[in-house]
Amino acid sequence: MWDSKSLMISIVGSSLIDVELPHLTFPYHSLSSSSLTMTYTAIGDMVGTTAGAIDNEAMNLTLEAIQPCVTEEMNLMLCAQYSEEEVRIALFQMYPTKSPGPDGMPPLFFQHYWDSIGGDVTKAVQSFMHSGSLLT
User: Fold this and answer.
1) What is the dihedral of CA 104, 109, 111, 114, to 10 degrees?
2) How many domains does the chain have?
3) Is residue 136 domain-resident?
4) Is there a domain that residue 50 lies in?
5) According to the 3-state scheme, what is the secondary structure of the chain?
6) Quick check: is 63 in a domain?
7) In terms of domains, do 25 and 61 share one?
8) pTM (two decimals)
9) pLDDT tens-digit series, residues 12-42
10) What is the extent of the structural domain holding 97?
11) Is there a single domain that holds both residue 63 and residue 41?
């Protein structure tokens, strides 16, 4: 059974650096309240306890000590859908003959025919980023 006293959370300034259990380390660069709750749950599940066994008072105290690094405006910008220009820039930064995609086509193909297929490529990228699955 997991002993909540064996959990170590490292905070430097207002940044959560890592979460440690004996023989396990989980590095983090930033976490939201819901992420930390999920982390507590996942760690507890990994070592044989449930989220109900977690000391909620200690967790809330820890969450109060963590200051958000991302403002609401920054979060909206980070969560916004990619534009066609952003997809084009990313594609044209790829080396033309390296790393063919699942369709076997290297970036060169998409770069060369961007004017014809750019809109479709952008829709496919946006769909993937939203749903996590490739268009069929």
Assistant:
1) -110
2) 2
3) no
4) yes
5) CCCHHHCEEEEECCEEEEEEECCEEEECCCCCHHHHHHHHHHHHHHCCCCHHHCCHHHHHHHHHHCCCCCCHHHHHHHHCCCCHHHHHHHHHCCCCCCCCCCCCCCHHHHHHCHHHHHHHHHHHHHHHHHHCCCCC
6) yes
7) yes
8) 0.48
9) 544 555 555 554 444 544 444 445 545 555 5
10) 81-131
11) yes
